[in-house]
Amino acid sequence: MCAAGKYSSRGPALIPRMKTKHRIYYITLFTVVLLGLIATGMFQFWPHSIESTAEWTLEKGSVHDAPLIRLPVSSPIPERGDLSCRMHTCFDVYRCGYNPKNRIKVYIYPLQRFVDELGVPISSTGLSREYNELLSSISDSDFYTDDVTRACLFIPSIDVLNQNSLRIRETAQALAVLPRWDKGMNHLLFNMLPGGPPDYNTALDVPRDRALLAGGGFSTWTYRQGYDVSIPVYSPLSADVVLSERQPGPRHYFILSSQTAIHREYRAELERLKEENGEALLLLDKCSNLSQGAAIARKRCYKGQVYEYPEVLQESSFCVVLRGARLGQAALSDVLQAGCVPVILADSYILPFSEVLDWKRASVVIPEEKLSEMYTILKSIPHRQVEEMQRQARWFWEAYFSSMKAIGLTTLQIINDRIYPYAARTYEQWNNPPVVKWSSVNSPLFLPLIPPRAPGFTAVVLTYDRVESLFRVITEISKVPSLAKLLVVWNNQNKSPPEESLWPKVGIPLKVVRTKENKLSNRFFPYDEIETEAVLAIDDDIIMLTSDELQFGYEVWREFPDRLVGYPGRLHLWDHEMGKWKYESEWTNEVSMVLTGAAFYHKYFNYLYTYKMPGDIKNWVDAHMNCEDIAMNFLVANITGKAPIKVTPRKKFKCPECTAIDGLSLDQTHMVERSECINKFATVFGTMPLKVVEHRADPVLYKDDFPEKLKSFPNIGSL
Fold first, then answer.
1. Where in this chain does the record put each Exostosin GT47 domain (predicted)?
2. Taking burial as the number of CB atoms within 10 A of a residue's CB, which of 70, 229, 281, 446 is the most buried?
3. Of 288 and 690, which is predicted with more confidence?
4. DSSP E strand boundaries for 491-644
């Protein structure tokens, strides 16, 4: 007890003494640990580099607020530039890494003012409005990052768009002192006006090591294919002048030349062409009788008559773009904006964005030595092709030339496609204007379809009262191996269909559906009886198609389930005299429609036709009892952006027993109304979605001298 009491009596006295003795020590230790944790956290989340805190914004576009960097005379100078550079030799793709969005990250250096030892700037103009717009648009895009450690591509804030304003040596020194320069690896420079007098080099003269160059005047000698990017020379008029889009077609002039500083030999040749072809060619020059000023840049003259530029470009079908002192010319952008087809005469010129753009669709490139033959060459181009080129030229300008933003982001997208080729844009995405869409529906290839409950196709036969012809059609169709069901749409409310015992005996299900009203649109109603994905729409008088022709048509549809695949082909044409579209049923080398009197299509289009047809087209068709097939062609082409497919060579589909009273297509009034349909539908859709093609699908070995029994489809039939 005494021992216990002795311990107890000492315990309370020992503890306070220990706290007093070590209190300062524990408090100091705790404080050090706490400060260490705070410092670790700050280091973890604080930017790891001074560069990463300098986010590019439009407000930092003021040169006066930028820090001043003085370049000693002894500052290093980059090498001239390696012409052998390619993406696999001079670009470090590992910096880009993998990211779920397959998009490169671009870092823009903070704005700085570079001067030499005497305080003289490296550029006479500083940061131009165009370059400021370019950098600002990139900083607002999904490509931009303000974290230098994540960057794949680096863009200096040093403006080298116009070499005329640069001090070559000092600009090169400024590039070399950039923190991440590393001999230009993964750096991108934008230049539109390269070279200088007297030789005007076609690439930027500033030494730049391995940096990529987005240049506006490359020739085949200076362009590093697959590494550099050829860009357009931006036209300041793009921001100052708004030219409304003009309908493609013939213009007042056939050829127009509007450049003012072209070589005297070229001008002499153009004047000779003018003498030979008269008013078809307009040859403009600068206006010598007007006072100098900013407005004179927008004037052109011919024999004292003054024309507004670039508005006058819209008055010509073709516009000449000749090389000047530099290969790249801002006139190309003006011509495209006007929807005028550029005729480019600049040997060895690398056209802007030619890595991805198909310039054959929007321009005519003629060797300089053939300038004298220009008129003859252009006259040989069909009118329809000229119209397509006019439309494509305007779209090229809108998508890729219209602003510094468009030029900059297109350049980055091209580089992005090189680095992530598996996610690159397709040829169609680069070159096909976007289809005007009235809903969010896409091609059936990308729709979540329910697997079909039955293979093959369903034949939907629209009929009124031609019973004998109907029975013959049913008998012939039933011979097709892939036929799954026959659906007869009885469109006569005043007469009942024949008794069941009178119908042909066929080995597949046959269903008759009676409609409440006599409408042509009934053939495209999404009936529950249609269980297959493939539908064959066929008229009750199409008795000439053989089972081989029908089976082959179905096999073609299986390869192209988002297309209309049919037999009777038709064409739409632009009537220049009347200024509107025209329906053509004569035999031609082109097809833009297949009639649904005999055509395969995906059943999903029945739903779109019935419930999603734009405007009043469906009601108009029912009221006029015409053009339901044209409406379906418009619908499918507008949704998919693709042309129909004509199969087999057959062109004659006239019913032998039908008279002019029975056959609607024999009525001249009917043909006129078909043209009216095309014009109305084009107005409602807001575009002309129909695509013209010059091919059809025939079976392999169809025309070969080969035993018939070895051919898959021997009985294709004649014309």
1. 101-381
2. 229
3. 690
4. 510-514, 534-539, 565-566, 569-575, 580-584, 593-594, 598-602
